[in-house]
Protein: ATP-sensitive inward rectifier potassium channel 8-like
Amino acid sequence: MLPRKSIIPEEFAFSPALVSPIPRKPVFRDRVNKARFIAKSGACNLSHKNIREQGRFLQDVVTTLVDLKWRFTLVIFSMTFLCSWLLFAMFWWLVAFAHGDLDTNRKPGVEQCFTNVNSFTSAFLFSIEVQVTIGFGGRMITEQCPTAITVLILQNIIGLIINAVMLGCIFMKTAQSHRRAETLIFSRYAVIAVRNNRLCFMIRVGDLRKSMIINAVVRLQVVRKTTTPEGEIIPIHQIDVQTESAVAGNSIFLLAPLIICHVIDKDSPLYDLSAMELQCSDLEVIVILEGVVETTGISTQARTSYVNEEIQWGHRFVPIVTEEEGVYSVDYSKFGNTVKVATPRCSARELDEKPSILIQTLQKSELSHQNSLRKRNSMRRNNSMRKSNSMRRNNSALAVPKVQFLTPEGGPNLAVT
Structure:
């Protein structure tokens, strides 16, 4: 869900002076347009090429049919039934031809193997009636042809198998688990800020449906290109990232939108990254949400990823859950909204080595907050004084002037009208 713009109070504004007091050498690297491993929609950005053993896909026909696109699945569904009808129509026509039912000069006392099967078209219609059990009553098998009875049993068995497989594929395709994942949403941006005096990486997840995801588990992975000491290049090196609920197995109760927090400690792959180095890095943070759908009992998985441009340093998510008339209300229009907060620009390693950086940053933030409050109060007083002065001038302009009248004796007489 895309975040919407909102009016942010000035007391939450981020001061440009809130930077790390430790001088740090800028790190600049040529930024190359790196392909994402996981798209924002959760699709895997991976292309398979030069697969020589294509026959392995036919060993699991059901999974292959389910993975195909809908247009291919419908074509295969229709062609399977049509081919089976044509195949058995050929069998029925051969049986009728061998028995002599198609001979127009047959003797009048000889019983037929079929009734009203005189051509291939009628044999095709009879094949459809047998497999889909329509039974119009015009065409039927007699007891004079054991071969036809055998073909009838064989077509019924094969027809049931085709119905079970094809209808099962259609059901599995319509009830795929990723359909439920469409209503599991992630914040467009991830944030890095201080929480409980520790530098943390945070995202927000939510579920738009009222039916819950049971045993929801959130896993984070950092994917980056690394080189081993032996010189081996690993293009996709996956590093697991622990969250705050790691002790409980990352299980969450996804009743309302939650903020998933990863504490950047010494075991974190983000431990040595500062705000400037993060902008030049090529890492990608993958978020995986797994759980069981309450209504169907099918496991589902939702995925997304965040690259360096989508990680906001020095921000935190705004609250979206409020209590209104005894009911908790969630405002999804602010789901991805963030606000700037005082955050050191240094790495978590430097923050652990010199805790005074955090104290100085918080003190500067408090001072800036107080200055902003004084400025707002002074502006309010000035505005109120301007309004009062303006009202006084307007009242004086509306005052009634004095008019002088002359009496018949010529003396002045002052009167106010």
